[in-house]
Amino acid sequence: MNTIYINARFLTQTVTGVQRYAIELIKEIDKLIDCGEVDGTNYSFCLLSPANVVTQLELKHIRHRSVGKLKGHAWEQLELPFYSKGGLLINLCNTGPAFKRNQVVTIHDASVFSYPNAFSFAFRSWYQFLTVRLGKISKRVITVSNFSKGELIQHCKIAAQKVSVTHLGIDHIHERQAAHGTLEKYGIESPYVLAVSTMNPYKNFKLIFEILPEVQAQNLNVVIVGSQNSKVFSSHIQNESEAVQWVGYVSDEELKALYENAAGFIFPSLYEGFGLPPLEAMALGCPVIVSSRGSIPEVCGEAGLYFDPHHPQEAASRLVEIASNPDLVQQLSTKGKEHSSFFSWNKCAKDTINIIMNAV
């Protein structure tokens, strides 16, 4: 039997886009084994994680072992190679052991190269080294958009034939029940525009503050979901306004309620490897106003209203359109639901399994 190990360090981390990808992909692979589309008699899958797990997955066929005494990067570099020897190692969250060749790695973007000043010196230096190294020694590299594939080839000199693209899925947002009383819990007044992201400088949240007069002129508030991480990011936004409400990190059920009740969703990012939040908003019928940079046009297609993130007035005019044109809102809502339905974790898992089997 072929043993395939999965680097499950992501189970020790707060769930953002990268961890969401790993969690949903693992659950879907488990389903593929259950229905016989992946041969569970010939392939054995095993999650390996440090002991400090914060997310538990209910899986039928994929085992989970907490191994080693270390945690974080030290565990990944020093202990994980030992526990995964004798099998192929799958890394889903940008990192992996720098000196193991029998592995496959998902690298979501090349932001440490394209926007180096957005990260602390230590973080940037380590990830630049590790991304190039993993691209060189891994059997296969997976990324999440054609945009990211081009970025990795350009910055890390990875051979094009070594890189495969698998788009993320959206099914998870439909599996949750929206939490009742979410707006009351956070004291949110409708109508509001929602923004969801980590507070990385290249996420361009300063644009929202630059267009606040126009937002307020439409009697809209702004609700921002996301946590700041000053250990990673070299700077972060420090703006206060009565029209802007920061709610920090919320549960999946609360996030669904915020999407469903929003008048619109804004995503002003200067750079994205994929960009899951606007797709989540679309899936729930929330009209999206999105930046025209990075992978965003590839992901959102013709179902979003675009603006140049370097021109705040363009974003403001898009918001005015949303606030003043109910027919446009309905049109975007319908288009968004249709477009998002093409993104499934089942397809992502099948494409990923094919890559893994070729690597085995």
Structure description:
This protein has 360 residues and is of the alpha/beta class. The chain folds into two domains: 2-169 and 344-359, Glycogen Phosphorylase B (Rossmann fold); 172-340, Rossmann fold, CATH 3.40.50. It is built from 15 helices and 13 strands. The chain has helices at residues 17-34, 72-83, 111-114, 121-137, 146-156, 171-175, 182-186, 206-210, 212-217, 252-261, 276-283, 296-300, 312-324, 326-340, 345-359; strands at 2-7, 43-49, 63-66, 88-91, 103-106, 140-143, 163-165, 192-196, 221-225, 244-248, 264-267, 288-291, 305-307. The strands form two sheets. It has a seven-stranded parallel sheet with strand order 3-2-1-4-5-6-7, sandwiched between helices. It has a six-stranded parallel sheet with strand order 10-9-8-11-12-13, sandwiched between helices. α1 packs across α15 (345-359) and α11 crosses α14. The longest helix is centred in the N-terminal third of the chain and has 18 residues, at 17-34. It is globular.
